[in-house]
Design goal:
single chain, two-stranded antiparallel ribbon, 2 strands, mainly alpha
């Protein structure tokens, strides 16, 4: 079964396209806490499904556009 991770570059691109250039702007738009956004974009935490859905809704993209498939360990 494939594994998926949040594609940080996809999130950043969507945010930049929307004019959200700071972690705080991403947090405000998505409703996800700023600390969580900072940790996600730094790769220090794994997002919950709810967080990925909120990010997708905030930037009007399907969840699949924010995920990348990774090889199983």
């Amino acid at each position: 079964m494939p594994e998926y991770r949040l594609d940080i570059s996809a999130v950043r691109k969507r945010a930049e396209d929307a004019g959200d250039l700071t972690d705080d702007a991403i947090a405000r738009r998505s409703g996800v806490g700023r600390t969580t956004i900072c940790r996600l974009l730094a790769g220090r935490t794994v997002p919950s499904l709810r967080t990925v859905v909120l990010l997708g809704k905030a930037y009007a993209v399907p969840v699949e556009d924010l995920l990348m498939e990774v090889e199983a360990a």
